[in-house]
Amino acid sequence: MTTTKTSIPIALTIAGSDSGGGAGMQTDLKTFAFHCVHGTSAITCITAQNTLGVVRVDAMTSDAVIAQIRAVVEDIGVQAAKTGMLLNQEIITAVAGEVTALQINNLVVDPVMVSRTGAQLIDDDAIQTLCNQLIPQAAIITPNRYEAEILSGLEIVCLEDMQTAAEIIYRNISKNSGTKAVLVKGGGMSGDVKGVDVWFNGERLEVLKTKQVETKNTHGTGCTLSAAITANLALGKDLWTAVKDAKEYVTSALSYSLDIGQGQGPVGHFFPLLEK
Ligand SMILES: Nc1ncnc2c1ncn2[C@@H]1O[C@H](COP(=O)(O)OP(=O)(O)OP(=O)(O)O)[C@@H](O)[C@H]1O
Ligand SMILES: Cc1ncc(COP(=O)(O)O)c(N)n1
Predict the structure, then answer these.
(1) In terms of residue numbers, what domain contains 192?
(2) Closest residue CA from atom 8 of ligand 2
(3) 185 labelled catalytic
(4) Which of 36, 157, 184, 257 is 20 to 30 A from residue 248's alpha carbon, by CA?
(5) CB–CB of 156/177 below 8 Å?
(6) pLDDT, tens digit, for every residue of 130-170?
(7) In which domain of life is the source organism classified (predicted)?
(8) Which residues pair with 183 in a beta bridge?
(9) Of 32, 65, 73, 67, nearest to 46 (Cα)?
(10) CB 230 within 8 A of CB 172
């Protein structure tokens, strides 16, 4: 029997584990797989979590996180990477150092701070480190409504606020960095703006709108979106196309969200295989 050598783009997720399989690393790897991108991972922490919320968080040591990133990059190599839940200052400093040292390009930073269920997913003193050390190395950052409020210092209640926040965040981080764009996500908004995102790249302010999906099962939408952007960058798409296509993907996955557990279920990553 002859074997075929298959080449495939590689993406890395640096994120926390969600035992419920709805957010974090598990979601990232499913999203990479859907896009036919080989997924690699560096676990930052282990959450005991389900559709109702986060019960417990255990951090990895920063040395363990560094070793995972090096093991992947030095042997396999990555075309794109994303960060999710980084939890504490030590881990953020370690990840930022490795991104610089290993020259990891096409970095998507999902500045995970607060979960949809209200659980705090980062230590208070770590937010400044995230802003100073990691975010400036990102090609794009993807804050949700609450993270955008923290990063911009603005209360966000309408589309105009989202637009102003995107501009403020971009201007704050682009001074000394290579960050190309900010995407403020609207899953946490209400009314007509729910599910509407705002993109700003220093020149173009765009509103990204697909269809609004009526579902309570939205756990992990942010992780899915940032992982899909990462997969698209690994596939060689330009940043804007990567974001637009990722937005379409998350909308389709939301349309097939999974009614599991007693709380907020996850999205259906492999929707073409699911029967309505
Ligand atoms: N009901 C909805 N209908 C359509 N799109 C939605 C809906 N809810 C969220 N989205 C989209 O999902 C993506 C993720 O945004 P969201 O604001 O939910 O991120 P997040 O809060 O980081 O997600 P999570 O923390 O749940 O992983 C965005 O593109 C957003 O517009
Ligand atoms: C490990 C991990 N990473 C990220 C999130 C954010 O996702 P959500 O806001 O949907 O809970 C999470 N809950 N858990």
Answers:
(1) 10-266
(2) 115
(3) yes
(4) 157
(5) no
(6) 999 999 999 999 999 999 999 999 999 999 999 999 999 99
(7) Bacteria
(8) 199
(9) 65
(10) no
